[in-house]
Amino acid sequence: MTFAPVSRDEIIEAFRVRNPEHLARLRARANQVRAERVGEMVHLRGLIEISNHCCRNCLYCGVRAERREIVRYRMTIDEILSAAAKAVEYGYGTVVLQAGEDAGISDEQIAEIVAAIKERYTLAVTLSLGERPDSVFQRWCQAGADRYLLRVETTNPRLFGAIHPHTPGSGFPKTTDRAAMLRRLRSMGYEIGSGVMIGLPGQTAEDLADDLAFFQELDLDMIGTGPYLPHPRTPLGIVAELYARGGRPGSRIWEEMVQQTGFTYPVSEETVPATNIMGLTMIALTRLTCPEANIPSTTAIATLDGRYGRISGLQSGANVIMPNLTPMRYRPLYEIYPNKAAKNEEARETHEIALRQIAEANRIPGVGPGGRVRR
Ligand code: 5AD
């Protein structure tokens, strides 16, 4: 059976309608396409948050550089290898090494970590370490890295500029074309992944339709999306809270807030809500737009709905779960947003919960590296 591709009008309607019956139909359709194109396996990627240091100041993120009050950590190579050993023990095919843009771990150290994992274990290695020069990406690829995740966060250039300020003195160019960076990563041999947040202040249904068109255009191998979760100790968190309490552009308090936070993007009533319903809608539309991609049921979804979030994602087109293998003592410190799912769990517990969720969704745990299929 073949499925009619989803049109731009349908996409925009889905983000505007927001009613349960509409969502149920969309999810059922996406679930069917998922079954046909990538099957019943749910691939498990062991997530290791290797450092929460970051030189950037993204307005939404809880580990932004300006949060000087938070405790920063950096895992040692031995700690990273023990976490990777757990991934092997639990039968996962992939580990994901994620961190802020941390200048304190050298490019060569990362290469050594990747090489050590590849030498000891049969694991695919995915890196999620932010923007880097091509020469560094090449070095890591040579060391054995298989995949690279770099979310574009939003394809709306003005909104991206508003949430991701330039870092003076960092050596980064003023703006980076992440789409071009992803294309270069692919040409080096990486599988490439990207994604966006849903419900950023001012983000509209049209913006999300553009994001989906971008996923398709790049023919992404991995696509991670999730609702934007306001962190109260960040500039964007302050904006989002004020908006949620009815604050609107033009009011005195709004203008004061713009002054205080520097978030100057024009927020309108068209803002898509950052809800689980919108998160599941995005997963379903992503599956319909990019039927072969590996799509995770993300932590952001699990955070908003602890009991059913993960499972709902799996039933809306997702075919990947990323259980967190970061050692217990570091987990609460990687607080990109508050109340992050699995904040206080041992790796084993996180693993067992993931297996139960897979069973509850009537699916089977993946075997092998679980790379992108091409049919
Ligand atoms: N809410 C939701 N997602 C967030 N991320 C970072 N901060 C937040 C937040 N406050 C997402 C970004 C980033 C990924 C690691 O986590 O999309 O790329």
User: How many beta-strand runs?
Assistant: 10
As a whole number of angstroms, the C-alpha radius of gyration is: 20 Å
SSE class? alpha/beta
* Helix fraction by DSSP (H/I, runs of at least 4): 40-55%
Q: Please tally the helical runs, counting DSSP H or I stretches of 4 or more residues.
A: 14
Outline? globular
State the separation between the terminal residues, measured CA to CA: 14 Å
Low-confidence stretches: none
Which kinds of small molecule does this entry bind, naming each only once? 5'-deoxyadenosine
Please state roughly what percent of the residues sit in beta strands, choosing from under 5%, 5-15%, 15-25%, 25-35%, 35-45% or over 45%.
5-15%
Element-level helix/strand string = HHEHEHEHEHHEEHEEHHHHHEHE
Average pLDDT figure? 95
Q: How is the main sheet built?
A: 8 strands, parallel
